[in-house]
Specification:
By secondary structure, the protein is an alpha/beta fold. The chain contains 6 helices and 10 strands. The chain has a single domain (9-223), classed as 3-Layer(aba) Sandwich (Rossmann fold), CATH 3.40.50.300. The protein has helices at 51-58, 81-91, 107-112, 122-133, 148-160, 178-189; strands spanning 9-20, 23-35, 39-44, 66-71, 74-75, 92-95, 166-170, 196-201, 212-217, 220-223. It binds adenosine-5'-diphosphate and magnesium ion.
Amino acid sequence: MNEGQKKGLCAENISLAYHDGSDVTLAVRGVTIDLAETGFVGILGPSGSGKSSLLYLLGGLKRASSGEIYHNGCAYSEMKEKERLRLRRNHYGFVFQQSYLFDYLTAMENALAGASPGDDQALARAMEIFEELGIARHAKKRPRQLSGGERQRVCIARAMMNSPSVIFADEPTAALDRQNGHRVMEMLAAYRDRGLIIVVTHDTAMLDECDRIYRMRDGTLQEN
Ligand SMILES: Nc1ncnc2c1ncn2[C@@H]1O[C@H](COP(=O)(O)OP(=O)(O)O)[C@@H](O)[C@H]1O
Ligand SMILES: [Mg+2]
């Protein structure tokens, strides 16, 4: 199928098998999904249903065992490793369940780690993003001086540094209490007109803001 210059992110019949000795786990089974350039998409499913695996495939962090994924019409399987790296670095942002921050850097320095080398606008943009996320007053603190919710907001700021076209978030609220969880979801949702946000979670309560919700079960996906 010729995808041409179709905008957005789309996957056709993708699967992912993990091989562990003689064991094979089919974590993603023939998933097809077609997502526009903007919007806030939630993927809901219980633990072990394949949410992280699917997110890693869509984000180009893992290669599909079969099927094809396209970003703005470009097929992942036709990209060299370097091109995929460039796609991830320049066009995608990632937020994970645990806030992977450098302990020895300040919050601001951590966010700047997401900027491209030589980007002289980075600091000004990071300040703007910190303001928007309500963490400007924490810019000079180290991660250990911040609450879980604040650390997660630093991760969101880092993910937003390059104005990505897609933000992938893997259970970004799982380590937070409900109130902080909702704030984090609101902050991701606020990006919905600037790009596509895909959040996977096992917590239905976190998906109030979503434009579209999919359910994942045993590696398969269905729109809700
Ligand atoms: N690296 C791996 N090696 C082998 N099996 C894995 C690996 N990662 C995940 N799995 C298995 O794949 C399935 C889906 O896992 P995962 O994508 O992490 O689901 P979820 O994020 O919904 O909890 C599970 O059965 C899990 O045990
Ligand atoms: Mg997971």
